[in-house]
Amino acid sequence: MQSTIQRPRIVIVGCGFGGLEATRALRHAAVDITLLERTNHHLFQPLLYQVATAGLSAPAIAAPVRHLFRKQPNVTTLLGEVVTIEVAARQLLLADGLAIGYDHLIVAAGATHSYFGHDEWAPLAPGLKTLDDAFEIRRRILLAFEEAEKDSDPARRDAWLTFTVIGGGPTGVEMAGTLAEIARHTLSGEFRRIDPASAKILLIEGSARVLQAMPQDLSQRAIEQLTKLGVEVRVDSRVTAIDGDGLEVQGASGSYRIASRCVIWAAGVAASPLGAQLARGTGAPLDRAGRVQVEPDLSLAGHPEISVVGDLAAAMSHADGHDPRPVPGVSPAAKQMGRTAAANILRRLAGQPTLKFRYRDYGNLATIGRNAAVVDLVSPLGHFKFSGYFAWLFWLFAHIYFLIGFRNRLVVLMDWASAYWSKQRYARVVTDIEVPAPAPRP
Amino acid sequence: MQSTIQRPRIVIVGCGFGGLEATRALRHAAVDITLLERTNHHLFQPLLYQVATAGLSAPAIAAPVRHLFRKQPNVTTLLGEVVTIEVAARQLLLADGLAIGYDHLIVAAGATHSYFGHDEWAPLAPGLKTLDDAFEIRRRILLAFEEAEKDSDPARRDAWLTFTVIGGGPTGVEMAGTLAEIARHTLSGEFRRIDPASAKILLIEGSARVLQAMPQDLSQRAIEQLTKLGVEVRVDSRVTAIDGDGLEVQGASGSYRIASRCVIWAAGVAASPLGAQLARGTGAPLDRAGRVQVEPDLSLAGHPEISVVGDLAAAMSHADGHDPRPVPGVSPAAKQMGRTAAANILRRLAGQPTLKFRYRDYGNLATIGRNAAVVDLVSPLGHFKFSGYFAWLFWLFAHIYFLIGFRNRLVVLMDWASAYWSKQRYARVVTDIEVPAPAPRP
């Protein structure tokens, strides 16, 4: 009687960029993959701010995971949230109690918001990581204008028409620039008692410049473009308190208060709680953001059967010719890590030595708003830095190119084309009009 | 010193079809209109089932109200929910405390679900009236397949793969037919442990036929098309109990239980609670569904300054040559009532006699699913009844024609074209995977 040899069981947690690429990379392998995702979709996060600002509908940037992998027979997609990683038993426990055993595990669970120890700010200043976040931010933005239209008290009206974005990274810059677009263009002529163009948009950044991952001159260009769009950028400004009516800021010249009923958090990320699980189970160290420190080949020390990729990993890039460099928490890095982790699993299965991870940095791009972006491009042809209208076009096409799915690309292209010409935004849906109540002042 | 004469204040409650058309009809009038809507959008309800079945995104069928009326200077749009109608004082109170005075009032607040006295069924069997309803139904449909994929117990799996739609009107028929499409086509090949095509789709109807507003032969045609699509239609079947695991049905041959984890309610509507407000304030009678009985010119007896239109009104259609006929609760009727009520306000302002409302019935149409629909068309050229593929094309183009907004029309046309060719549905987004817990059996 022949014994049936079970194929190696690979479990991949998370279908963000890291998990997606790892799963794809294993498509021809004689393995059984279980892909676990706690929403039913892969989210194209770079465009999430567009859903948050009512410029795109959610389905344009969210692809159902099991649809993406329908033609890959060695993948079983399951919808569920991992709550426990049992390292010794080599199994995961889901929230509904289901146990999933593995021979090899890739944890690509990503990151969430960090409020720097002030978790009480979370309901007051939503961040932008998931579609639910985007819906909530969208709701608050649209409601703020609606409430201003109804309120005859000038001070309260001003607070409704003051929008504060905390954090000068790409997400914050994109949100602030788009808020300015909404106030100055999209809502033009639609109100009778307020002038939406009179809205104040503030971008608060703790360090000395915005877009810290970019070269200094592009940071400066971004500030110029933001200012031209009508955003007030305040660097060297730290938020010390947030309540339902506004926030307290510590700036260069002292402390002051901003009355603002719509505050958006784009200032800090923290790794998924699964990082702490892995640290407990394997002894792997965590960095300050809770990310798991991985070996050069992305596995955990002493546990070659577990790899961590994407925003959950604190990884280094190894190449001849330079010292190991930290890998940034950006989408291209997550994708490359996913591919490397998958390739290394196959190498282990074949008894071959694993590869050290090498991050190929193609550069950085961030949009600021209508006709404005900054691009820092690293290519075999050289290093290009540009900004303004041409950078904005480049940004548009790059994002459409990287979107998953032909139909999504067509939809987004059409949405943007029509939005550009008409200065309109087409996903302005609010279903719940209960306004966030102002919290009692501490 | 000249005294400023204030223009007549017209307040319109609700921006469904009735409120929308009434507001439009007053666009050239020297009046000040306040349009109150408790969401920020006008909803194209005939296509709401498409959002519920993940075929269209919400923004495709929802147009922001203040955007629709930006070019009508005599309209001020306010987002708010009316909680009290103070008839003697001629003012409305909103949920946030704002008071809005009126000289003339059109209440177009529509209808909600009726569970025939069993409000406890509401969380177990969601209905389909608002976008939030559609999101919830979509969530439960997609989750049901996901849970079935994870559950190895055959009985529980069967319950997850049994979908029950209660109510054989157009909404129920459309939902059931589309559920069959999802199970047989959309999800094909996407699961590894279940065969989604094995899902059971049940349509439960209390009376002897579906689509009661249609001629008998078209009802029969609809049942045939549903059956061909794989829906099991059970007429003469009344629901007697719903719990989280399934429902009890009283049929011709006795009582029996259906184990079904996804139950959708499409069986009854009840008028908005504002109907009861008006009855209390004016003495106007309500019918069994809570709709307000109106005079031939759509105003309330003894209160010519108040009109009620749309699903909230129990109105009669008056024309020479036939007795007054009840006006059905359909979109074209709401639109016509809105226009008539607005015209009558202008007549009253001009001291002219008002018009009796006359409903022009152009017929009825209902889609069943892919390539299948029934159309009952009344036109000056004659009365046409047809079904099948051609009826389905007609249905598609009629709905696109009546959609508000060119861009929405283009989006929906594209979505449907690509969905048809690929048999895919593109709005399959689930963000909250908490499954509705089975309720304890009573």
Question: Which helices and strands appear, and what pairs or packs with what?
Answer:
Two copies of one chain form a homodimer.
Chain A: E1 9-13, H1 17-25, E2 32-37, E3 41-43, H2 48-52, E4 62-64, H3 65-68, E5 75-79, E6 82-86, E7 91-94, E8 99-101, E9 104-107, E10 111-113, H4 131-150, H5 154-160, E11 162-166, H6 170-186, E12 200-204, H7 216-229, E13 231-234, E14 238-243, E15 246-251, E16 254-259, E17 262-265, E18 269-271, H8 274-282, E19 292-293, E20 299-300, E21 303-308, E22 313-314, E23 316-319, E24 322-326, H9 331-349, E25 363-369, E26 372-379, E27 382-387, H10 389-402, H11 406-422
Parallel strand pairs in A: 1-2, 1-9, 2-5, 9-21, 11-12, 11-17, 12-13, 19-22
Antiparallel strand pairs in A: 3-4, 6-7, 7-8, 10-18, 14-15, 15-16, 20-21, 23-24, 25-26, 26-27
Helix pairs in contact in A: 1-9, 4-5
Description:
2 copies of one chain form a homodimer. Chain A has 442 residues and is an alpha/beta fold. Chain A has 2 domains: 9-113 and 270-349, FAD/NAD(P)-binding domain; 119-267 and 371-422, 3-Layer(bba) Sandwich (FAD/NAD(P)-binding domain). Chain A is 31% helix and 28% strand. Chain A contains 11 helices and 27 strands. Chain A has a 6-stranded mixed beta sheet, covered by helices on one side. In chain A, strands 13-12-11-17 form a 4-stranded parallel beta sheet. A 3-stranded antiparallel beta sheet of chain A has the order 6-7-8. The radius of gyration of chain A is 23 Å and the shape is globular. The interface between A and B is large, with 52 and 54 residues.
